[in-house]
Request: fold
Amino acid sequence: MASIVEVRLAAFIPQAWIDYMRTSEVVVQFNGNNREFTYYTENQPELSKMTQHVVVDFNKKEIKHFKSVGSTIERTVDLETGEVLRQFTGHASSDGLTISNQSISSTSATFKLRASAANPLVSSAPAIDWEYTITVTNTGKVTVNGTHDGYPAHEIYKRVDYGTPTRIYTHDPRVTGETPASLAPPMEHSVNRTV
Reply:
């Protein structure tokens, strides 16, 4: 039987920078997270746009929720010289990353995760969103039901008793062709997985 089951969700932009606007002289870009899919982003908020990490402790009958939102950097680059002409940094609030409907027994735990955070440097930017109901059993089985936006990349992992993480679900907008336009409602992708 499992004592500790961790569930980790993250949204990230795989590229180092993405173009926002372009003229004949400059390009305005936003930072990405410059990474591929991995569980190992704990305590590194710069590696994700937003993250929720839940630790289910069956021995203590306790559910702990951790959340983070990475910073956003906007830069304007001269196309001819490559010089950064201006740069701004912002940080969205993590208030939109919530856990609710928590229940735990000696054999299972259930909770609902909701996440919503927008680019703090663009007032009209739609938020990155997800909403899941998750059930964890003391055998280490995790069931995830819910929805998420088509952009950016999205990953869900579990880890049992501090062992090797197991991928539950990933979504790669580079494969599906989705762009930041997919941040607008509704959430495009449904997830119904048990691992």
